[in-house]
Design a protein that fits this description.
Helices cover about 35% and strands about 20% of the residues. With about 240 residues, the protein is α/β, with parallel strands linked by helices.
Length: about 240
């Protein structure tokens, strides 16, 4: 399926999510970096069409959510009975106050979503509120504002982050930052070239396929040995303190 249908006013394309569904090496790389922190009862915020969700199907509970009903329907059709919790429509910019508390989530996963929310402090506070004490939030966000360019604008990113931007926001929301690290150094060059030099407005499927098949496996091995001080993405792990309710 590749219908190029627009989701809402922000121009997010189902077709783009489908292209990323084929980037198995890159997705597995992300998962390996996050897996030590993932619990058993998970809320995935901004799950899209379930590209990352399908790596979580062995967990006790996964509630996948997305802003767009089209994505929720697609996710239900794609994963169906494999899901242990029904996907739900939820806008992180205006989340429900208490409807999700009964699930007793020990993990919230938020991949490439926080940058789409104007009030990211409010979004982080919500994620903190739905976690049980000791639970974790796992964030992956685009890194470094100097890389902000045409694709960022086209898909309505409000910002890109560094550790000094994101970690204080997490602390203010009540999280103890357990870990924070960059990944995908080599991807910075391609993003800068496409966004700041060529100024294209959508990602190139051919480039993504080449990166995933030829570059991502090599880059993962290098970064496993030599953790980079910067990268295209920033991953941050926050923990809700045990005494907090």
């Amino acid at each position: 399926m590749n219908n190029g249908q627009t989701l809402g006013s922000d121009g997010v394309m189902v077709a783009d999510l489908e292209v990323m569904a084929e980037a198995n090496n890159y997705r597995n790389w992300m998962y390996k970096r996050m897996e030590p922190y993932i619990g058993q009862r998970i809320l995935e915020v901004g799950a899209g069409i379930g590209n990352f969700t399908e790596l979580l199907l062995d967990r006790e509970l996964v509630v996948a959510s997305d802003k767009y009903q089209m994505c929720v329907d697609y996710l239900q059709q794609r994963l169906g009975a494999q899901l242990k919790g029904a996907p739900v429509q939820m806008d992180l910019a205006a989340p429900p106050e208490s409807a999700l508390h009964a699930y007793k989530f020990d993990t919230v996963i938020c991949i490439n979503v926080l940058e789409h929310v104007e009030d990211d402090a409010k979004a982080l506070a919500f994620m903190h509120s739905v976690l049980v004490p000791g639970g974790r939030v796992i964030l992956l966000v685009p890194a470094f504002q100097f890389l902000y360019g045409t694709i960022d604008r086209a898909i309505e990113h409000y910002r890109r982050y560094t550790r000094k931007d994101l970690l204080p926001r997490m602390h203010e929301a009540g999280f103890e930052v357990e870990s924070a690290f960059y990944m995908n150094v080599i991807g910075m060059a391609g993003w800068f070239w496409n966004n700041r030099v060529r100024k294209i407005k959508e990602e190139n499927p051919g480039q993504i396929k080449i990166f995933d098949k030829l570059i991502a496996p090599w880059a993962e091995r290098v970064e496993r040995t030599l953790p980079p001080p910067f990268g295209l993405s920033l991953i941050a792990i926050g923990r809700k303190q045990q005494q907090q309710q």
